[in-house]
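Supplementary Text 2. Reproducibility record for the structural model of the 117-residue chain.

All settings were left at their defaults, and a single model was retained for analysis rather than an ensemble. We include the record here because the model underlies the residue-level annotations in Supplementary Table 4.
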Amino acid sequence: MGLLDRLLGSLGGQSADSQQGSVFLDLATAVLQSHPGGLAGLLQQFTAAGLGREASSWVSTGPNLPISAEQLSQVLGQDNVRALAERFNVSPESASFGLASLLPALVDHLTPKGQVD
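Retained model, structure tokens:
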């Protein structure tokens, strides 16, 4: 099972096809690559927003705690989510949902040893 399949599985029963899942993966990757400070900076932003327990769980080797689309929009900023949505030709609501669903699994995948390198 590839990364995309595992990440799509994290959508929890959503009927997203591979093409849509690929768009969400590209969106999540863009968030990580463009965020000041990269992955560490993104995790710090979640911590500063009161979601440190959730963000830490994504890095740790245990289960990933979920976040909602609303929480994700609050942390990243609605204007940023809207801009990303436009860039990837999806609705802001879909972008928020997709990111909230995939980001924990993507961070988990990028930190297999339980720490940010």
